[in-house]
C-alpha cells in the first residue's frame, strides 16, 4: 500500500510518498503556494501532520483526497505503548510526538530526541516508552531574527559573510551566528551530559549542522517515520 505523508510546519510543507518503508518520492513547498502545487495523486492513503489548525489547508487536502485522508493534529494516548508525561497529552506538540515515535522505530535505547527547526526541542524517552519531559527554546533562525530585530545596535550588514562555526565572531553577523549556534550546542550537550545513558538522536531542518558539532547521527525523516508507523496501526 502506498502512502503520502505530509508534514505542515510553520512556514513550509514537506512530503514523502512511501511503500513499506521505502521512500518513493519527496519534496517541499512554501505554505502559501500549496493550493497551486502538483500534489501526488496515485496514492492509497494520505496522512497529514500539522502543528497548528490550518483550516484552509485541511479543506484543500480534504477536497483532493477525500476519505483517503487522515489528519494528525494531536498525539494519540497509548499508541505503540507511548506513555505521556503531560497532564493533557493533546497539548504536546504533534511534531515532537511523531519524532519520538520515529526514533523509537529505529532504536530500542533510552533516547534524547532533538528536533532542530523553528524551535529547538529536546525530549527524553525511556526504554519503556515513557516520555520523561523535555525542553523548548528558539531555534537557530528564530534566535538570530530576535537579535537582529529586537536590538538597535545588533544588526546584519550585507557585506559581512560568515561560515557557520563556533569560533569567536569578528563581525556582528559572525558574532550572532556563532553565539546562537554555540548556545544551541551547549544546551544539547548539557542535557546529554545529565542523561549519559540516553542515545542522542538529531532531526529537523537545522539538525544536520547541529549534529556535526555534537558528533551525533542525523536522522532527517523521524517525523515521517512516526507518521508511517501511525498509519500502520
Walk me through this protein's architecture.
The chain has 233 residues and is of the alpha/beta class. 33% of the residues lie in helices and 26% in strands. It folds into two domains: 2-72, 2-Layer Sandwich (Nucleotidyltransferase, domain 5), CATH 3.30.420; 78-223, 2-Layer Sandwich (Nucleotidyltransferase, domain 5), CATH 3.30.420.40. It has helices spanning 55-65, 94-106, 140-150, 172-194, 207-214, 222-231, and strands at residues 2-8, 12-19, 22-30, 45-50, 69-72, 111-116, 119-125, 131-138, 199-203. The strands form two sheets. A five-stranded mixed beta sheet has the order 3-2-1-4-5, sandwiched between helices. It has a four-stranded mixed beta sheet with strand order 8-7-6-9, sandwiched between helices. A hairpin with a 3-residue loop joins strand 1 and strand 2. The longest helix has 23 residues, at 172-194. The relative contact order is 0.15. The mean pLDDT is 90.
Amino acid at each position: 500500500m502506498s502512502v503520502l505523508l505530509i508534514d505542515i510546519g510553520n512556514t513550509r510543507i514537506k512530503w514523502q510518498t512511501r511503500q513499506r518503508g521505502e521512500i518513493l518520492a519527496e519534496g517541499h513547498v512554501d505554505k502559501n503556494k500549496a493550493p497551486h502545487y502538483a500534489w501526488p495523486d496515485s496514492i492509497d492513503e494520505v496522512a497529514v501532520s500539522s502543528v497548528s489548525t490550518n483550516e484552509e489547508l485541511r479543506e484543500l487536502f480534504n477536497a483532493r483526497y477525500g476519505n483517503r485522508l487522515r489528519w494528525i493534529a494531536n498525539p494519540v494516548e497509548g499508541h505503540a505503548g507511548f506513555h505521556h508525561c503531560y497532564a493533557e497529552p493533546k497539548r504536546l506538540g504533534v511534531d515532537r510526538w511523531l519524532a519520538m515515535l520515529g526514533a523509537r522505530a529505529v532504536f530500542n535505547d533510552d533516547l534524547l530526541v532533538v528536533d532542530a527547526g523553528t524551535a529547538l526541542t529536546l525530549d527524553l524517552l525511556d526504554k519503556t516508552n515513557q516520555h520523561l519531559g523535555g525542553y523548548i527554546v528558539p531555534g537557530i533562525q528564530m534566535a538570530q531574527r530576535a537579535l537582529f530585530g529586537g536590538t538597535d545596535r545588533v544588526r546584519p550588514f550585507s557585506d559581512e559573510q560568515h561560515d557557520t562555526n563556533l569560533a569567536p565572531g569578528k563581525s556582528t553577523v559572525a558574532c550572532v551566528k556563532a553565539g546562537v549556534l554555540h548556545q544551541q550546542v551547549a544546551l544539547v550537550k548539557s542535557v546529554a551530559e545529565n542523561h549519559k545513558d540516553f542515545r542522542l538522536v538529531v532531526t529537523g531542518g537545522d539538525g544536520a549542522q547541529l549534529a556535526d558539532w555534537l558528533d551525533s547521527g542525523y536522522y532527517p525523516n523521524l517525523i515521517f517515520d512516526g507518521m508511517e508507523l501511525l498509519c500502520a496501526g
